[in-house]
Write a structure and sequence with these properties.
97 residues; mainly alpha; 90% helix; rod-shaped
Length: 97
């Protein structure tokens, strides 16, 4: 077998397969980077529905905090009223002086 035929039938196909493998590896890396960038954008860019839900939850927390303050005020008033009633009862009892 002459050297030219061996080169043409063996070496050229091997070189072509190697170049094809390098080319496909390069395409794979580019596609992989694009997918990673898309995923990063998706993770960093908040969705409109998520933002609305977050705002709704913030409003609910503020409402609960204001209710908590209102409850504390009502508890203080109730304690004051109980003390006043207790003092009146004790002063109206016979023998209290």
């Amino acid at each position: 077998m002459p050297d030219f035929v061996w080169i043409q039938n063996v070496i050229f196909p091997l070189v072509a397969m190697g170049m094809g493998a390098f080319f496909l590896f390069g395409v794979y890396r580019i596609v992989n980077r694009l997918i990673d960038r898309k995923d990063k954008r998706r993770l960093t860019a908040p969705d409109e529905a998520i933002m609305q839900e977050l705002e709704r939850l913030r409003e609910k927390v503020e409402s609960l905090e204001s209710n908590s303050l209102h409850m504390e005020e009502l508890e203080e008033r109730l304690d004051f009223a109980e003390r006043m009633l207790t003092e009146r009862r004790q002063s109206s009892l016979p023998g209290a002086g």
